[in-house]
Structures are given as C-alpha cells and as structure tokens.
Amino acid sequence: MALEDITKTITEEAQAEAKKIKSAGDKQVAEIVTEGKEKVKAEEVKINQRIEKEVQKVMERVKFQTNIAERNQLVAAKQKIVGEVFAKVLEQMSGLDENKYVEFVTGLVNGLPDVAEGEIVPVAGKEELTKRIIDGSQKSFAVSADSIPGVGGFIFRSENIEINNTFAALLDEKKGDWEIEVSKILFA
C-alpha cells in the first residue's frame, strides 16, 4: 500500500470517526435540548399551577370581602328602616290626643317609687298639662319651674333617684327589646 492509500484510509477512518462523534454529539445535544424543554415545560406547569392557586385565593378573598360588604350594606339599610319605624313611633307618641296623653303620663307618674319628696321636670310645652296630671295623681310631687326638651313625658328627681320618663327615653329603653320583633315583622 502506498502512502497515499494509507493517508486516504486514515483520512476516511478519521472522517467516519468524526462523523460518528458528530452524530453522537448531535444526538446528545438533541437529548439535552429535549430534556431542557421538558424541564422548562414542567417548571412552566408548576408556575402556572402556583399562579392558578394564588389567583383562586385572591378571588376567594375578593368574593368574601364583597359578601361582607354586601351584608354590611344590607344590615345598614335594615337598621335605617328600623330606626325610621322607631322615629314614626315617637312621632305618633308626640301626637297623642290630650286624653290619651294624660292617661299615659298618669300611669307613668303612678308607677314612680314612693318617696317622701320628689320633683317632676316636664317637657317644654307640657308644663300646665303635667301640673294637672300630678294634681290628679296618687303622688304629691312638686312640678319644677324648669322644663326639658322633648315631645312628651317628664324626668323624675328625688334625693337619690333620677328617672327619665320622656317619650324618647322610654322608647330607647324598649328599643333593644323591640328591635328584633320589628325586624322579624319587616324582613320576614
């Protein structure tokens, strides 16, 4: 074999070996690229799942907060309506005719504690009527020259006692008991 043939054979073998190495390298690169793409896809799926979970949590919080806000608005609206009902009751109490007013306030006066001395402070505009009620009652309390603002009733004062029997105070006192019943009637 001549030198040229040996060189040619070595060159051909080297090229074949290079081709094998290149082919193996290309195959390895393809595997690495495929493996990298799979890892990227897997990581992308994980990231998307985390994002989905976070979005779900945020949506649940927003929904919860919206429900609370709606409920609060509903409660506020109901409370406003109940308040209007009690305002109308006070308005109706202020519009009692004189006979019913006298009867109601006489009952309040007669329900006062039995003490030796006491003073009735009438609401403004009802001073004379209050004096007549006291004079006709079973009690002998003095009627104050002072008066208080209000639509009806009085304040009773003695040495150790003060009882607010104004219509507004009486209604406020009963309001806690009656709010539930009024709400049931209005919103059932």
Structure, described:
With 188 residues, the protein is α+β, with helices and mostly antiparallel strands. It folds into 2 domains: 1-94; 96-187, hypothetical protein PF0899 fold (2-Layer Sandwich). The protein is built from 4 helices and 4 strands; from the N terminus they run H-H-E-H-E-E-E-H. It has helices at 3-94, 98-110, 127-136, 167-187, and strands spanning 119-122, 142-143, 153-157, 162-166. Strands 2-1-3-4 form a 4-stranded mixed beta sheet. The model has no long low-confidence stretch (mean pLDDT 89).
Core attributes:
188 residues, alpha+beta, hypothetical protein PF0899 fold, four-stranded mixed sheet, 4 strands, 72% helix, rod-shaped
Major sheet summary line: 4 strands, mixed
Supply the number of structural domains: 2
Number of helices: 4
Q: Can you tell me the residue ranges where pLDDT is under 50 for at least 5 consecutive residues? A: none
Output the helix-strand order: HHEHEEEH
Question: What's the overall geometry?
Answer: rod-shaped
Secondary structure category? alpha+beta
- As a whole number of angstroms, the C-alpha radius of gyration is 46 Å
For the secondary structure, the number of strands is: 4
Strand content of the residues, in percent? 5-15%
Helix amount, in percent?
Answer: over 70%
Order of strands across the widest beta sheet? 2-1-3-4
- Report the mean per-residue pLDDT as an integer: 89
Note the gap between the termini.
113 Å
